[in-house]
């Protein structure tokens, strides 16, 4: 049987997308092979209007010689709207094999032209139903159909948030539709397949809430930012088997009312009175005689675009871990995880019972629920029972950021609050998971989980800064520092495509970029924030090979660089205007948010960085004139930077960690000066006892700057630092997401100021990029995007870690880089997907000692080139799975305390059980386990976190030794 197969067909990043308005969609596929070093040499794509007949395809590439298997542009005849197209792929490889045809996949187009919209925007008649009312509006319409339905599609959107029901059932699991765009310019519409929900007599019902469109946004209490009236537009197209078509639209014939949702706001929560439910309101034959009329409102149809981003959905459910009563007497649920979403509950109570849920991220030092950091956001849900048996409720048009839920009014049970009555529903943009990371340090593993949970909680249709307080805005600076980490962990091409299109339309005429996208506050064009216009499209291109988006955003990228160029009197410096600088850096003056690194240095450094990216984008897009222009500009900006900020003796004049980090990362110095800057940065860290002082600008690059310049051990110690300030300090405090402040919770249990203290704020999670690329060693060669050329180069010379693994589902398939070190050997497991190659460096290895699955590396199948270099072995491999083993005889000695060898024989859970058994009341078993693995006993005793007495420690070691003896006896 042929061992070559085409799998995982996608169109515009999606599997079988319903309702796209891309007129030349791109298709991609992956390949599976039973041979190593398999490369595609040719492909054939066929597109047909029928699923089972490709004899006369609409488009057929024929045998097309190419190694490209992603972003293949459809070049056939013009597509029709509201039409499903089927496609299949076959490939040929470098072994002379031809695959079978893939399984058939499809895409379906939506509405290409505004003239295809027959529906009208409607809203309740303001003479009958005040548009300023808080209750959610209900809109309905009945209609009849004939026999022989072949297909039915709803095309719908709203100004405000909407939810559609057809014959009493929701048409989709999507939430918070149509999402948040720059409504003044762009409004997404959604497509729903409702074929199976239709009957001969039907009713359609829509709920419409304020949402982002006219609800309360930002901290100044603004509402009605985009408009004062909620509205919807819906077009239901029914096609019959006889070829005829029937269209049901929103128009003046609809009816409107209010219902049980009395109040619903993004920040503040929802009030639901079940006594006001209108039973059967979205079913046929409901009596709407007393309902109000609707009117048509004018919103330009030219604003409508088909859904670009993944929808927002419930992606996971969490059960409460415990229920307890606080010192203040409150009954509180602990979800065990700082999450974003909503609480769903069941209740059986007499009519009129009011249940109130208040959501918080954290408890104060006394153990009471803490709401101070919400500022004006209420995050409160109220439900009033109707008293007709078991009732089930979850909020509709709001979401909360929380771990703890204060419950008031829930009927008392014999055993207190029933945990089984409550479930947490995790809500975020439904992105496909892409990356994994784990290592020998359980606290770092918790950090990785915190990074991922922080991303999930803040990717709710836009990349928000926080999900709990009265903000939740698409801050550009946060997005650009985190985007590479984000795109490793989740497939986010569609997410950022949609957001960048909003950035482009919000960009000012002079090229300035607002602080937040969509823009709902005053202010624009801070260095490192506005640079999102350049950094984000380039990073999407690097991760996915999305040349179309790069071309689309190029004018915006160029406009931003030209905006900088026009500032001040010197076109090669940026020394004017407002800047956030190194926001929240620890070297700031007391009571200041602004770090000590001068704004001019930060701004000019990012000026150079964005100019370099723009120049590189021009190369990709073959804009030769711009390549020349921006190469010249880059050289002159770098020269100014050096003249201004580097002393004649080659030392950086600004003595902050961030100044040194940016200078190194953005290639602003070279040669001996670069060596001096790196050395000085390392000494700063050493002098500060392996603690950082960086803020939003310097932190994302800090460890990369150290590792890339020969100071990886310092970078590792920074990562593993547990005392404040450090990445692991919040972990020692029980954090399950990334904090906004290094000391969001201080050592004494008190908090940073209520004004700005989010416990779910992903920016500092950008450390993940370094963990994946440097620690685990999974990286890409920038010469070809989307991991077409892979770099595997783990840095395993550090002494603090014995194992690390990263995997990433690239456009080509799964990549894996895993290493483990013992006293005797180094073991690496590597996976390279078909149609890619990888350059691998095995540190401190010798060619003659390395084997792959027991075979000498020189004879291993798939190894294409081998070179002995100073760092170890450099070689190139093709696709396949590899297991390299070589002797650990060149100094790769991990730190082992006298008990760490014992711990290595146990699972984490077993060791945790021992710890908890012999150290009653231990506050942080994960942290102690990490200490046991990497520190000698003496250091362990000195660490106040463990709170061990000599006697307890002896008992612990005896217990671990006894387990080791048992394991030894089993092995023997």
Task: Please provide a brief summary of the model.
The chain has 972 residues and is of the alpha+beta class.
List keywords for this structure.
972 residues; alpha+beta; Immunoglobulin-like; Jelly Rolls; 6 domains; ten-stranded mixed β-sheet; seven-stranded antiparallel β-sheet; 19 helices; 27% strand; globular; FN3_sf
Low-pLDDT residue spans: 895-907, 918-923, 930-955, 961-972
Question: What structural class results from the helix and strand content?
Answer: alpha+beta
Count the strands? 47
Main beta sheet strand tally, sense and closure: 10 strands, mixed
Count of structural domains: 6
Nearest-integer average pLDDT = 92
Quaternary status of these chains? single chain
Number of distinct helices? 19
CATH class of the largest domain: Mainly Alpha
Kindly identify the CATH topology of the largest domain: Glycosyltransferase
How far apart, in Å, are the first and last alpha carbons? 44 Å
How big a fraction of the residues is strand?
A: 25-35%
Shape: globular
Helical residue percent?
10-25%
The CATH architecture category of the largest domain equals Alpha/alpha barrel
Please tell me how large the radius of gyration is.
Answer: 30 Å
